[in-house]
Design goal:
about 270 residues; mainly alpha; about 75% helix; globular
Amino acid sequence: MSWLEVVVLGLVQGLTEFLPISSSGHLRIVSGLFFGHDPGAAFTAVTQIGTELAVLVYFARDIGRLVATWFRGLRDPEVRATQDYRMAWMVILGSIPIVVLGVLFKDQIETVARNLWLIATTLVVFGILLGLAERYGRQVRPLEELTMRDGIILGFAQAMALVPGVSRSGGTITVGLFLGLERAAAVRFSFLLALPAVFGSGLFTLPDVFAGDGPTPAQMIVAVLIAGVVGYAVIAWLLKFVEKNTVYVFVAYRIALGVALMAALGIGAVSAT
């Protein structure tokens, strides 16, 4: 892997991880179009550590409060009645589906799921679903009204992103809007929910990244740092954007990209595998 590819993919990861447009799909598409190969699911998982570090920094106060409350709640019954304690458990329980399914279908995720025809299709289909959620979701429930049932359902929504093109944030935001959550609430919970699963996935697949002719440790560190810095800026922008704007711009982008990719595959301009 060249240094140019490392820098470009680090930028792509940082720009797309938190937007509902699929970072893994974009990494696969950019690599296929400009570098002629697939960087692999392991590379994608490890670069996500950078963007999740951005979440840790941006939401450090919120995350610290949730963790402290969870530990206090283990021994104090009164703390268990608080929303922070329940929220911590929602993140924990909501992380289970993607972990279990990720382990069970690891081989398929790293092979057939990375076919560009599949990615093009998921970009379009889940783009349409996101648009429907924006149009018909009531968007009246703040983050404080999130229930344990909601957290588990959103956990399964996040697990759909094991297929590149679906988008982890896109899946959770879509389902969150269908559940009646406010747009900003769905986005914030999406960020928090990703932390355990993404860090776990990155560490679990770390040995696979350096197998064969993959990136060097130095290249991987640079990619992670770039993704983290760019991702931090995207978090700040997206939270402000969704407070006053719909997600239709992302719907249009997903559909346009998916259709363009189908066209490129159809004329043989890029290989599906």
